[in-house]
Amino acid sequence: MATSIRLGPAGWAAVREHLAGSDQERMAYLLARATRWETGGVDLLVTRVIPVPDQGLSQQSPAHVVPDPAVTRELLIACYETGLSLIDVHSHPFATDTVTFSGRDMANMAATHRDFLNRMPADPPVGVASLVVGRRSVAGAATDPATLQLGPLASLLVIGDQRTEVELCQP
Ligand SMILES: [Zn+2]
After folding, report:
1. Span from the CA of 102 to the centroid of ligand 1 (angstroms)
2. What domains sit in the chain, N to C, each tagged with a CATH number?
3. Residue 9 alpha carbon to ligand 1 centre in Å
4. What's the pLDDT score for residue 123?
5. For residue 92, how far is its CA from the centre of ligand 1 (angstroms)?
6. What is the pLDDT of residue 161?
7. Disulfide engineering: 85 pairs with which of 32, 99, 117, 136, CB 3.0-4.6 Å?
8. How much distance in Å is there from the Cα of 160 to the middle of ligand 1?
9. Is there a contact between 97 and 138 (Cβ–Cβ < 8 Å)?
10. How far is the CA of 162 from the centre of ligand 1 (A)?
11. Is residue 163 exposed (0-12), middle (13-18) or buried (19+ Cβ within 10 Å)?
12. Residue 122: what pLDDT?
């Protein structure tokens, strides 16, 4: 079922700015409150933006990034204790007008999303998603909490004085 992300303009600007600030791949995490619709759709409302400093990465290059396990462990504990959902974001500085998850990204997402959903308590509802950000492009993916199927993110909405739907590159 469809997963959507909503976040405020300041949060989205902070993510973009952090990711664009390097020729190396960078990461950020978003913590979100999930609402599960009766239709099965999941809405993730971002409540916190966490740019990962380069010291919080265990591997980093212009085409690769891996977070320090201590960073992800801390986030998983925070989500577990607060019932919040997790969205990971990383950059592809080499991508311009089109960006897509790499094969390695897809394999990582399938594993980390499933692991996240398996660890979280059944209540409150949670969701899990990933974003990849190019210079002028964004793509997203999410795993359905019910079926554990990984698929494209339905929408990314920046909600401020007006609602702006961020155009997502399709795989
Ligand atoms: Zn990637």
Report:
1. 5
2. 3-165 (3.40.140.10)
3. 24
4. 87
5. 6
6. 87
7. 32
8. 28
9. no
10. 30
11. exposed
12. 80
